[in-house]
Design goal:
Layout (H helix, E strand, L loop, with lengths): L3 H4 L1 E2 L4 E2 L4 H11 L3 E5 L5 E6 H9 L10 H4 L7 E2 L4 H11 L3 E6 L2 E7 H7 L2 H12 L2
Parallel strand pairs: 2-3, 5-6
Antiparallel strand pairs: 1-7, 3-4, 6-7
């Protein structure tokens, strides 16, 4: 079975932990993505920021997206996958943590992202079906 490096989408960009949520939203729009990894000044992954986070935790809470930083929305350590981890581990990790996107790291360096769409394109239908089912339940 394939590795994360073979399945991932490379060239993933980060939003800096000190960048505003407004800047992050503009970056998402420009890149045509719904999530960005949050990277610290030390270039280590601090978390993930999704379009849903922006809506529910910033706009829905009445906060100013220009005055709120991406780092404020980082929740603990990000769930990641190693670049050379096999597809079975991707499926286990996504299922266990109920995440639709996994940053792919090589050491401490972000090298890409595996999303459910990448899994769907790369793995057999039954594996994809189990993943989608697991992500769709509470």
């Amino acid at each position: 079975m394939a590795t994360a490096r073979e399945i991932m989408t490379g060239g993933t960009e980060c939003v800096g932990e000190k960048e505003s949520v407004l800047e992050a939203a503009k970056k998402m729009t420009g890149l045509g993505v719904g999530a960005l990894p949050i990277c610290g000044t030390d270039n280590k992954l601090k978390g993930m920021l999704t379009d849903r986070d922006i809506v529910t935790k910033v706009l829905g809470a009445g906060k100013d997206p220009a005055g709120c930083t991406a780092g404020e929305l980082a929740q603990g350590e990000a769930v990641t996958i190693g670049a050379d981890d096999r597809a079975e581990e991707i499926l286990r990790t996504m299922t266990r943590h109920k995440v639709r996107r996994l940053p792919v790291i090589d050491g401490h360096t972000l090298v890409g992202m595996v999303a459910t769409a990448d899994v769907a394109r790369s793995l057999p239908d039954p594996d994809v079906g189990y993943l989608i089912e697991a992500l769709s339940t509470d």
